[in-house]
Amino acid sequence: LIFIYYISGSSGHKLNHKKNVVLPLSTQIKKKQQEVVGFLEANKIDFQQMDIAGDEDNRKWMRENVPGEKKPQNGIPLPPQIFNEERYCGDFESFFSAKEENIIYSFLGLAPPPGTKVCTSVLPWGSFI
C-alpha cells in the first residue's frame, strides 16, 4: 500500500528565529511536513512525496481531492495534505491529533504493526480498525 503525502517543494530561506517571532508561512509548512515525514520514516511506513510547487498536475489533484468541508475559506488547502492512495486522510492538524490520541494507524487507514497497542477507532470512510 503506497502512502501518498503532498508536499510543497517551494524553496525557502533559513532564518535565525528568536522566541515569539512569527515564522513565514513557508517555514511553518516545512516544519509540519518535516514532522509528518519524520514520523513516517521512524515508523517505517512507506510513503511518496508529491511536490505541488513544481507540478501543476499534483497541485490540481490535491486541490480537487481534499473534501470541501476540509478546505479553508479561500478554497485552497495548504500542504501538507495526507492521502492513502486516493483516499483522503487529513491535514497536519488531523495528523497531529491522531498521533496524540494514539489512533494514527486508523487515521492513515493502515493496520498497526504486530504488537502495537492501539485504540479502536472508526476510520474516516466508515469502516472499523
UniProtKB/TrEMBL annotation:
Positions in coiled-coil regions: none
Taxonomy, superkingdom: Eukaryota
SUPFAM superfamilies from the UniProt entry: Thioredoxin-like (SSF52833)
A GO CC annotation given for this chain: cytoplasm
PANTHER family: SH3 DOMAIN-BINDING GLUTAMIC ACID-RICH PROTEIN, SH3 DOMAIN-BINDING GLUTAMIC ACID-RICH-LIKE PROTEIN
The family this protein is said to belong to: Belongs to the SH3BGR family.
Protein name, per record: SH3 domain binding glutamate rich protein
Species whose genome carries this gene: Taeniopygia guttata (Zebra finch)
